Amino acid sequence: ETEVAKDPMKAYALSGSVHPQSLVSASLQREESHKGLFVDRGVGSPRVVKSVSASTFATDMKLTESKNAMPAAAGAVAAAAVADHMLGPKEDRHLAIVLVGLPARGKTFTAAKLTRYLRWLGHDTKHFNVGKYRRLKFGTNQTADFFRADNPEGIEARNEVAALAMEDMISWMQEGGQVGIFDATNSSRQRRNMLMKMAEGK
């Protein structure tokens, strides 16, 4: 006598042969049968199980609404309005992001991703890579001595290209740019102080 399973997935397991197409259709049937049991609160949010009773679910929703009197969209608009009032319109605000870190730690990768994301959000963003300035000015065949901390000529040359990149970033911001990402190691306090002084009052 063959056992009859109500669940299609169990039936496939009992038969001993499972076909991928059958599994897909069974999972779709199960999903259809559970439609309306979950609340999707958006991308990245977990699906919340609805209450069994409609009245209980309505009560839960009212409690949630009372806790969150201001919806997320309205909150974002209000926050933007407060920022505009305190800091001025978005077009008049400028942000310089100066990266700090040892070589080959992902600064340029992070800068490229951040530039792409901020542009997607609608902010005029530009990536200033000091390494490109250095290669254009001094070539690509620099020895390790060029980067030594006890090489005054190398330090002066590196600070020179860093200053060029910073000047370009400041000029770009003065022409309407909003977010500048300054990509260099900037591992010495002397270099960071130099950049801070260049940016003061700009």
Explain what the structure shows:
Residues 88-200 form the 6-phosphofructo-2-kinase domain. One of its GO terms (molecular function) is ATP binding. There is one protein chain. The chain has 202 residues and is mainly alpha-helical. It has a domain at 90-199: P-loop containing nucleotide triphosphate hydrolases (Rossmann fold, 3-Layer(aba) Sandwich). The chain has eight helices and five strands. It has helices spanning 8-15, 20-33, 54-67, 72-87, 107-121, 130-138, 152-174, 189-199, and strands at 38-39, 48-49, 95-98, 125-129, 179-183. The strands form two sheets. Strands 3-5-4 form a three-stranded parallel beta sheet, sandwiched between helices. A two-stranded antiparallel sheet has the order 1-2. A hairpin with an 8-residue loop joins strand 1 (38-39) and strand 2. The termini are far apart.
Question: Layout of helices and strands, plus pairs?
Answer:
Layout: H1 8-15, H2 20-33, E1 38-39, E2 48-49, H3 54-67, H4 72-87, E3 95-98, H5 107-121, E4 125-129, H6 130-138, H7 152-174, E5 179-183, H8 189-199
Parallel strand pairs: 3-5, 4-5
Antiparallel strand pairs: 1-2
Protein name: 6-phosphofructo-2-kinase domain-containing protein
GO biological process, one term: fructose metabolic process
Organism: Opuntia streptacantha (Prickly pear cactus)
Output the helix-strand order. HHEEHHEHEHHEH
The biggest sheet, with number of strands, parallel, antiparallel or mixed sense and barrel status, is: 3 strands, parallel
Strand order of the largest sheet: 3-5-4
Going by helix content, strand content and strand pairing, the class is mainly alpha
Unreliable stretches (pLDDT < 50, length at least 5) are: none
Distance between the termini: 86 Å
Portion of residues within helices:
40-55%
Tell me, what is the CATH class of the domain at 90-199? Alpha Beta
* Cα radius of gyration in angstroms: 29 Å
